[in-house]
Structure formats: structure tokens, C-alpha cells
Write a structure and sequence with these properties.
about 25% strand; 7 helices; 9 strands; alpha/beta; about 30% helix; single chain; about 270 residues; Rossmann fold; five-stranded mixed barrel
Length: about 270
């Protein structure tokens, strides 16, 4: 089966389970899954029930697709994402973004938990991502191109929509939410970066580093979906902190910052500008 036909089969399965087509996609990172609690008219579909969908086994990722309404918007929320380090191909881990496109999604909000490199950051900070650096050395567009999805050589001069970032800035100001702005680099993982690697990321211009977000951003831009991404700085990176890293720490800080992030995302979605 061709990739397009596989994606269409997934989209057709989902469309039969929902009342309204989604226009906004949301990908929730580790410990940041509470957005679904404030959605209305929800339909919850476990990933394992959807033909073609991967299933994540990472702690902190629920593994559900939730379609529902928040204000005037109909959302398609990934409650748990997929990662390159799990053994998925780049095409597999971005598969849901392709499904979103066929269901009618034209805007995407991505969140993640990541490590801070910029010395002006601290754990618990929220960072509006302005650009990315792909140091996974792979991407979901490698291979044959299907023009039904997008062009062979998509532009990446504005991977994160200036329109959506402006909207996010205004929403944060209305709520008096402090935030940082910066460049996000992807680290393949699943190990936490070495001190030498963090010095490299710092020198090439990264403000934060994590193990997700970049593949989804590339796929969304290719598909013509406007993208916004917000990172939660859950720890300072290796060499910039005391002690060792732990996934439990990441989840704890993400959950503590989740309330502010939830308010921010909700305001972005329900506000008119």
C-alpha cells in the first residue's frame, strides 16, 4: 500500500468516529497532557485502534487521539507523541501529522519538555520556539515524494509561523505569563547529552535541546500547516547543572509548569487575535 493510501485509510477511520473535522492539531509532550481535560464534546480514540498509527511506550505519554471542541476551534490532540529514539522511522513518527492534513488541520501547536542551554534560562521556564536546528541528521521527507502532500523541496525560512507567534506573544501578555524565546535543537537520544555535545549545541546557536518537535515541524511545513511550538525547560543541560538527569525530574517539572502552559495554549486558541 502506498504511503498516501495508508494515511487516507487512517483518516477515513477517524472521520467515521467524529462529528466535526478538526482545524487545529496539538501535539502534547511529556507531562503536558491536561489540555484534553478542558475540551468539550470529546471523542477519545486510542492509537492502537487506528490503522497505521504507531504506539508510544514512553512514560508520561498517554497514547490517545482526542478530538473535541475548545471555544470555536475543533482540536485534534495527540496525547502522547512518538520519538525517533524508539526505533520509529522519521516517516512513522510524523505519520499523525500527515493524517491531520487529510482531516482538514491547517494549524499545529507542538509542546515539549526539554533541557535549557541558554544561561539566562531556568527550570520551569516556557520558551516560544523561533527556529530549529536538525542534528538528528535525518528527516521525514527523505524518500519518494508524493505531490498530493507537498513539493519536493519545501521552504523552511519560517518553520514557526510569525502570525501564530505574534498571537502567542499577545496571549502571554494578556495573562501576564513570562516566557523566553529561542532556538530548539533536536538530540537523537535516548541518552541525555554529554557536556561536550551541549557545548557544541551552544556554539551553533541552540537555546534548548530535546528529543522531539523538529520532525513534526518539518512535516507540518511540508504539508502547508502553520506551526507554533512552545517548550518547557524542565532542566538545565549537562555541564550547566549539578547532579544527574532523570526522566522523573523531567515529568515533575513539566507537570509543575503545565498549568501556565495550559492557560497560555487555551488563550491562544480561544482569543480572536
Amino acid at each position: 500500500m502506498e504511503f498516501y493510501d495508508k494515511v487516507k485509510a487512517s483518516a477515513d477511520f477517524i472521520s467515521k468516529r467524529i462529528k466535526e473535522s478538526p482545524t487545529v492539531g496539538v501535539i502534547l509532550g511529556s507531562g503536558l497532557g491536561d489540555l484534553v481535560d478542558i475540551m468539550e464534546e470529546k471523542e477519545v480514540i486510542p492509537y492502537r485502534e487506528i490503522p497505521g498509527f504507531p504506539v508510544s511506550k514512553v512514560q508520561g505519554h498517554a497514547g490517545n487521539l482526542v478530538i473535541g471542541r475548545l471555544g470555536k476551534e475543533v482540536l485534534m490532540v495527540m496525547q502522547g507523541r512518538f520519538h525517533y529514539y524508539e526505533g520509529f522511522s522519521m516517516k512513522e513518527l510524523t505519520y499523525p501529522v500527515f493524517v491531520m492534513k487529510l482531516l482538514g488541520v491547517d494549524k499545529l501547536i507542538v509542546t515539549n519538555a526539554c533541557g535549557g542551554i541558554n544561561r539566562g534560562f531556568k527550570p520551569g521556564d516556557l520558551m516560544l520556539i523561533t527556529d530549529f536546528i536538525n542534528t538528528a541528521w535525518s528527516n521525514p521527507l527523505i524518500g519518494d515524494n508524493d505531490e498530493r502532500f507537498g513539493v519536493r523541496f519545501p521552504d523552511m525560512s519560517e518553520p514557526y509561523s510569525s502570525e501564530l507567534r505574534e498571537r502567542a506573544v499577545k496571549a502571554a501578555k494578556r495573562l501576564s505569563i513570562d516566557f523566553k524565546e529561542g532556538v530548539y535543537a533536536i538530540h537523537q537520544g535516548p541518552y541525555y547529552e554529554t557536556a561536550a555535545e551541549i557545548r557544541m549545541y551552544d556554539r551553533i546557536g541552540a537555546d534548548a535541546v530535546g528529543m522531539s518537535t523538529v520532525p513534526e515541524t518539518i512535516a507540518a511545513n511540508y504539508l502547508g500547516i502553520k506551526t507554533l511550538a512552545i517548550a518547557c525547560i524542565t532542566n538545565m543541560a549537562t555541564g550547566l547543572r549539578e547532579g544527574k538527569h532523570s526522566h522523573e525530574e523531567v515529568l515533575r517539572i513539566a507537570e509543575e509548569s503545565g498549568e501556565r502552559l495550559l492557560k497560555w495554549v487555551k488563550e491562544i486558541l480561544v482569543s480572536e487575535n
